[in-house]
Amino acid sequence: MTERQKWIKNLLYINQKIMNIKPLSDHILIEPVLESEKTKTGIFLPDTASKEKSEEGKVVAVGPGRRTDEGKVIEMSIKVGDKVLFSKYGPNEIKVGGKEYLIAKEEDILAIIE
C-alpha cells in the first residue's frame, strides 16, 4: 500500500468517525481553522511559540435545534459547511482520530463568514 493510499484510508476512517458524532439539541460540531505559522511580514513561528486559540472554524455537524418549554423545536440558523466565528472560551474541545474539534452551543457562534 502506497503512502497516498494509507493517507486516503486514514482520511476515510476519520470522516466515518466524524459522521458518527451527531450533536444534540442546539450544539454544533466545528473543525477549527488552524492559524498560519507565518506572520504577515514573513516570519515563521516555531511550534514552541505561544499560540492563541483559533476563533474561526467550519461547521461539520449540527443538532436538530433547541426545544422550547412547550416542546417545540426551534431550527438552527447555522448549517453544515458554514464558516463561523465563535467565542474564544465557549466551545468544548474533543479529539476524534487524532484531530481536534470543538462542540459549541448555537449561542456561542458570533457570526457566519460569507
CATH architecture: Roll
Q: Please provide the count of β strands.
A: 8
CATH superfamily: GroES chaperonin
The strand line-up of the biggest sheet is 6-7-1-2-5-8
Shape: globular
**What's the average pLDDT?**
79
Please provide the ordered H/E string of secondary-structure elements. Answer: HEEEEEEEE
Largest sheet: 6 strands, antiparallel
Name of the CATH class? Mainly Beta
Low-confidence stretches: none
CATH fold description: 10 Kd Chaperonin, Protein Cpn10, Chain O
User: How many alpha or pi helices?
Assistant: 1
Strand fraction band? 25-35%
- Overall tally of domains: 1
As a whole number of angstroms, the C-alpha radius of gyration is 17 Å
- Please bin the fraction of helical residues: 10-25%
Structural class: alpha+beta
N-end to C-end Cα span: 40 Å
Task: Outline the structure in words.
This protein has 114 residues and is α+β, with helices and mostly antiparallel strands. It has a single domain (22-113), classed as GroES chaperonin (10 Kd Chaperonin, Protein Cpn10, Chain O). The protein contains one helix and eight strands; from the N terminus they run αββββββββ. A six-stranded antiparallel beta sheet has the order 6-7-1-2-5-8. A two-stranded antiparallel ribbon has the order 3-4. Strand 6 and strand 7 (99-105) form a beta hairpin. The chain starts with a helix and ends with a strand. 16% of the residues are buried. The model has no long low-confidence stretch (mean pLDDT 79).
